[in-house]
């Protein structure tokens, strides 16, 4: 069995979501630190173009997007589940909302001038400028649009009030009773806001939410150890992709084995090209070959990704 390898960097909110899910599962993993900005040649050698953080590697299988990474972690270790049976639809749908709508509002709040100045205070001005330019490119060409700061500020009390009431009225210590992917999808947005004293009160001002966030962060990150990018590439190169899942679900207009490009529809729309070897209810799998990574299977969610024939 191959080790779990997370390609991430410390300040990425979505990477924090993945790290917390690994901690919740009690899984051991290897840590490859990637650049926060493009270019990311070692990561792209594995993904074929997908640039967002984090990416989970299991041998020669590469999992993109934390929505799919969560499902892969449930497959790795069934208990405790990220998608509890009775709440699977609710948790997945709520997590999708948080990863999109709540996150975009958190981004606007985090990068307001006063907060951004603190975040970039220890960086040379040219690095801060490069970061903002990189994030501008990340949002180019997709359906996601930046939420104006005044809109995010105006909506925030409503969103936090709803979360507080959900927690106060719910049996148990988490959003839907038992912990689920929904908790981690909300938590990483609020963890992001707690990064500076400018935005921390937007979380800490809601005691029930802050207490819940403390419980989620308390799961920690699990046991992990560093791994060099070249070692991760060698692992992929020497491994064989896992057998494909059963029960394919047809993709209209695309035949199995057809050459395709798959890309996120919201932001970070860099395409991954290869042969579509599997389309399922939740995931798409693209086979590609790279001189450094060898033959890999790149897994992306079916929801939120488009497929085009090549």
From TrEMBL:
GO molecular function: transferase activity
Keyword Transferase: yes
Limits of the GST N-terminal domain: 2-81
Key words of the record: Transferase
Domain of life according to the entry: Bacteria
SUPFAM superfamilies hit by this protein: GST C-terminal domain-like (SSF47616), Thioredoxin-like (SSF52833)
Gene3D superfamilies on file: 1.20.1050.10, 3.40.30.110, Glutaredoxin
Keyword Coiled coil: no
Protein name as catalogued: Glutathione S-transferase family protein
Higher taxonomy: Bacteria, Pseudomonadati, Pseudomonadota, Gammaproteobacteria, Pseudomonadales
């Amino acid at each position: 069995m191959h080790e779990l390898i997370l390609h991430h960097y410390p300040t990425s909110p979505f990477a924090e979501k993945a790290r917390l899910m690994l901690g919740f599962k009690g899984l051991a993993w290897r840590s490859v630190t990637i650049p926060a900005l493009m270019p990311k040649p070692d990561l792209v050698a594995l993904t074929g173009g997908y640039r967002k953080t984090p990416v989970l590697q299991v041998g020669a299988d590469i999992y993109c997007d934390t929505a799919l990474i969560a499902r892969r972690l449930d497959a790795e270790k069934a208990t405790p589940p990220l998608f509890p049976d009775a709440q699977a639809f609710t948790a997945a749908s709520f997590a999708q909302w948080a990863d999109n709508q709540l996150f975009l509002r958190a981004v606007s709040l985090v990068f307001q001038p006063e907060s951004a100045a603190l975040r970039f205070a220890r960086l040379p001005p040219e690095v801060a400028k490069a970061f903002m330019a990189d994030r501008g490119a990340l949002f180019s060409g997709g359906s996601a649009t930046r939420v104006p700061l005044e809109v995010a500020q105006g909506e925030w009390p409503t969103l936090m009030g709803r979360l507080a009431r959900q927690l106060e009225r719910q049996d148990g210590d988490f959003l839907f009773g038992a912990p689920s992917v929904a908790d981690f999808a909300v938590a990483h947005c609020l963890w992001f806001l707690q990064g500076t004293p400018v935005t921390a009160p937007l979380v800490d001002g809601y005691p029930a939410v802050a207490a819940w966030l403390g419980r989620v962060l308390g799961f920690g990150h699990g046991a992990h150890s560093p791994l060099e990018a070249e070692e991760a590439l060698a692992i992929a190169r020497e491994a064989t992709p896992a057998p494909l899942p059963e029960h394919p679900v047809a993709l209209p207009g695309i035949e199995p084995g057809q050459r395709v490009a798959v890309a996120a529809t919201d932001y970070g729309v860099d395409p991954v090209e290869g042969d579509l070897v599997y389309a399922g209810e939740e995931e798409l799998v693209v086979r590609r070959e790279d001189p450094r990574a060898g033959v890999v299977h790149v897994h992306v969610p079916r929801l939120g990704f488009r497929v085009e024939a090549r």
